[in-house]
Write a structure and sequence with these properties.
Layout (H helix, E strand, L loop, with lengths): L6 H15 L1 H6 L5 E2 L20 E16 L2 E13 L5 H15 L2 H6 L2 E2 L2 E2 L1 E7 L8 H4 L5 E14 H4 L2
Length: 167
């Protein structure tokens, strides 16, 4: 059975919580246009969208590395998460509005993530923003819809003791 307290799930859910707690982000995004990939079913999006389906937003894990042995009794894992938006076209003002809403929502992300706990211990020891390339050229990811963009990317290091990992 899946562990709902899994550190990666906690990070993913915290990013969505930050976004949805921001009034400007909520004003820009309809609930049905928030593509939450936190279920075990097929991706909750359509191959074709109408203007009512836009803008869309999704949170993805884009890289993971580890475990890396840190000491004889501890290891760490790194991960990158990103927030992507689709405006449906290449109009910049719609993109600017969504980018600004994401920026505002994510301002406290380091404090929020470094406060997360697993086995009664904080586990995110480093959280930093990365450069986010704007365009998404991969047709399999953008579904042929112009305007998919990376709005935010973040890098995190998660540290765990061998005792907590059961090793």
């Amino acid at each position: 059975m899946a562990n709902p307290n899994n550190p990666l799930r906690q990070v993913y859910d915290a990013i969505w919580t930050l976004l949805e707690a921001n009034t400007e982000f909520e004003a820009e995004m309809e609930d049905g246009n928030k593509i939450k990939l936190n279920v075990t079913q097929q991706a909750p999006w359509f191959d074709e969208v109408s203007t009512a389906d836009l803008p869309e937003v999704r949170v993805l894990i884009s890289k993971v590395s580890g475990p890396h042995q840190q000491t004889s009794n501890a290891s760490f894992m790194t991960a990158e998460f990103k927030i992507e938006v689709s405006t449906g076209d290449q109009g910049q003002y719609i993109l600017f509005d969504v980018l600004w809403a994401v920026y505002e929502a994510m301002r406290p992300w380091e404090d929020v993530l470094t406060a997360l706990t697993w086995n009664d211990k904080t586990f995110v020891h480093l959280a930093k923003c990365l450069e986010a390339p704007i365009t998404e050229e991969d047709g399999t990811k953008n579904r042929g819809i112009q305007g998919w963009s990376c709005a935010w990317r973040g890098y995190i290091e998660m540290h765990f003791t061998s005792t907590d990992l059961g090793t």
